[in-house]
Recover the amino acids of this structure.
């Protein structure tokens, strides 16, 4: 039919092995919709070049013949080509400075940009996402760090020591099986008395948090309300074979500066009127799994100053932070940067305010891998591709030469069209302010 749809290789991260469209869907689209695919060759992608050939795709070194190109992570500025329609996670909607040069180049080249993150329904709920897999891998990794840290603290045979980093498992099912075995071990033998109660706090209640909770629920546990966590030490004869889990929402995390009641909509509209109320819970937590949305308008929940004060009083109960949100200097201020799968953990020293890569050292271990779903590349790609499948034909066949209002795209896709023929679409005009900060 002439139209070539491209699937690019991922080159932002060494261990990024995911793909947006799997061979299964290439084969289905070719048979049912007669769509032609060209796949950029990749030695590391979880699905091999040969699997794409068998599905009916052409494997090639570049995608120059493709007008529509599907990827996942940001595309290097030098790899962008004129008059293409690009579909990927662009990470520009917050005006992220590090991606403004890429956005500017997309506009200069007269391209179209569709961002998966903004493919949403009428309730602004994302329709295509990896979030649960970030939660899965984030919780697996956090348990792994906990096990390694406990070895250093003198508990070499702790049950968490049986858990590996997520990418070491062949599949999510394999990881779940291993963690379930750890759960049985805890149930039968209990936890070291000096460590109990082990408590895990989850921030957020979206896909990331629910994915993390799904992994944590493979261990024997009891869910507590945040208020109950504060009274936990008063309980007598706590069971030694349970993990206590607490989910924190905005009204637990924040308080009104003026002492008034917490109002969620007011918090969203005027976050400057609120401050963190989370510090009263931190001393009761063994593990923090941070899965909340955050941007610079909102207060932080773990600050460097709090951590300095906590360590000044002795070694705190908290042994690891799994920062799945991975916002540099964000809601967890200790997270100075995202980490690599191959080097996933750093220890933040609260006195020097310096991080040291690895699990050894004085301070707070932080797991902050910024491409967590890629630690479960096959499962994550299949899940994502299944969700994307309903949109591929509409994206590929749309006539982008038309005016924005006239393009025949479902409304959910129009919401995600950030750049149209080199110009910001109406909903994203605010990005001009961020682009204006670029050096000429």
């Amino acid at each position: 039919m002439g139209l070539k749809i491209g699937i690019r290789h991922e080159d932002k991260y060494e261990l990024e092995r995911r793909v947006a469209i799997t061979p299964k869907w290439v084969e289905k689209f070719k048979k049912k919709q007669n769509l032609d695919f060209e796949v950029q060759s990749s030695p590391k992608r979880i699905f091999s070049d040969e699997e794409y050939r068998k599905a009916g795709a052409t494997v090639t070194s570049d995608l120059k013949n493709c007008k529509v190109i599907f990827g996942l992570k940001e595309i290097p500025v030098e790899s962008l080509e004129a008059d293409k329609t690009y579909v990927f996670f662009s990470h520009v909607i917050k005006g992220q400075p590090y991606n403004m040069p890429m956005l500017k180049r997309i506009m200069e080249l007269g391209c179209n940009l569709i961002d998966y993150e903004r493919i949403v329904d009428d309730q602004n709920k994302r329709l295509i996402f990896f979030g649960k897999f970030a939660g899965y891998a984030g919780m697996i990794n956090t348990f792994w760090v906990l096990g390694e840290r406990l070895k250093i603290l003198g508990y070499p045979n702790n049950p968490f020591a049986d858990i590996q980093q997520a990418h070491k498992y062949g599949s999510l099912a394999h990881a779940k099986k291993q963690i379930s075995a750890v759960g049985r071990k805890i149930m039968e033998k209990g936890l070291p008395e000096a460590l109990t109660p082990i408590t895990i706090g989850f921030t957020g209640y979206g896909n990331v948090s629910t994915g993390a909770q799904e992994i944590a629920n493979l261990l024997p546990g009891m869910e507590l309300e945040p208020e109950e966590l504060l009274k936990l030490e008063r309980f007598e004869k706590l069971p030694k074979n349970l993990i206590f889990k607490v989910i924190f929402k905005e009204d637990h995390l924040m308080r009104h500066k003026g002492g008034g009641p917490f109002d969620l909509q007011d918090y969203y509209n005027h976050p400057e009127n609120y401050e963190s109320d989370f510090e009263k819970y931190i001393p009761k937590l063994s593990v923090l799994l941070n899965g909340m949305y955050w941007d610079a308008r909102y207060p932080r929940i773990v600050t460097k100053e709090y951590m300095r004060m906590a360590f000044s009083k002795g070694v705190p109960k908290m042994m690891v932070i799994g920062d799945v949100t991975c916002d540099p200097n964000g809601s967890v201020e200790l997270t100075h940067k995202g980490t690599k799968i191959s080097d996933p953990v750093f220890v933040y020293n609260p006195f020097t305010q310096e991080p040291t890569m690895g699990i050894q050292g004085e301070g707070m271990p932080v797991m902050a891998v910024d491409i967590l779903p890629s630690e479960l590349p096959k499962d994550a790609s299949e899940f994502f591709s299944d969700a994307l499948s309903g949109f591929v034909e509409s994206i590929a066949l749309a006539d982008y030469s038309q005016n924005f209002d006239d393009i025949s795209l479902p409304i959910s896709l129009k919401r995600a069209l950030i750049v149209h023929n080199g110009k910001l679409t109406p909903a994203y005009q605010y990005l001009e302010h961020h682009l204006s900060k670029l050096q000429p």
The chain has 13 helices and 18 strands. The domain at 131-375 is CATH 3.40.50.720 (Rossmann fold). The first strand starts at residue 4 and ends at 7.
